[in-house]
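To: structure desk
From: M.T.
Subject: fold request, one chain
Message: Could you run this one when you get a chance? Sequence is below, nothing fancy, just the single chain.
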Amino acid sequence: MNQTYYQLIDKIAQYSNVSRARFARIIHLPIEHTAEGCIIYDQEGNKYLDCGGYGVFILGHRHPAVVCKVAEQLNALPMSSRILLNETLSQASEKLIKFCPDPLQYAFFTNSGAESVELGLKLARANGCQKIIAITGGYHGKTLGALSVTSRDVFRKPFMPLMDDVIFVERNNIKALKESFCSRKTAVILETIQGEGGVYSLDQEFVTAAKELCDKCRGLLIVDEIQTGLARTGYNWDIERYGVKPDVLLIGKGLSGGVIPCAALAATTEAFAPLNNDFILHSSTFGGSPVALAAAMSTLDVLQNEEIYRKSRSLGETIIPTLRDLASRYDIDIRGRGLLIGIDSKSPEKAGQLLINLLKAKLLANFTLGNTGTIRLTPSALMSSREVEWIYEACEFAFKRL
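Reply: Done. Structure tokens follow.
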């Protein structure tokens, strides 16, 4: 590393974040410079296969269709006045709702997944839900409302007290789920695959029971597909696999097309009624900006026209068994569906070493915020066969050197 590199680290420590700079210095993080497709280039021209990005890059980096639409919007009307009518908003709302599962009818665009979670919780309150059930191992973000339904104490304790009407139920424990319901209106928020929780799937019976119990008390089932949605798991929406219809769907990550931040919430007519009755009840200065909506519309077109969910499913059906075979020799577990893949080394120390080893093999992966023994691969569905081989080679290199 040259002098310029350490000057950059020092500036981050002085003006941005001390612990972030310390972490970067310890593992000698390179400086990212440009990106295209599935590859990120550092300042020295080295190539890295991007299997990180927390699930954002389902279409890779700078997908030409998305970049083109964003550039067109940027040169026309990047931001909205928020006073006049905006055609881009109507078009994007229609396109998103038609891509969503029935019976979702209304869309609200936000800037991030955590904002979508906040709105989902507000809708639960506005619809009279006096209690919210969340799932152990679930992760929904780090804003105060989202933290209230996120189960990991290391993130919660510094900001207590949080919302006091939240009950946590053990993942896949139907008995505990049923006992948490009473005569009061109740909402349940869940991820069908807990990405940050270690890539654990919810059982069919558990998700079905959650929906039935919500319907019985006239509550809301809020399904967080911020990480699992938009073709990531081999389905356009992972909830489709369960045959369960959500009242509220939380959307993010891949909706941006990997180009500009964009997230959303979709809801049924009944669940969205408080906002339909008064549109000022919830608003966002930057959420649903025309330039972000251009990215979202183009992304949805690519997802639909190229049937990206089929590519994710096919790649996952190849990659996951191959990695399981490799990992079995090193006491490592592989979990996942589609292109949401967890590598469980069973200890935080080994997981950290795996990340470093993969970085040495020029493959970028993510640590997991709710399960420190597991790291995640969330590659693009548009990988070439050579890039798939790169995953195998990098993982074998990393496993051998644990």
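Reply (cont.): The chain has a mean pLDDT of 96. Let me know if you need anything else for the meeting.
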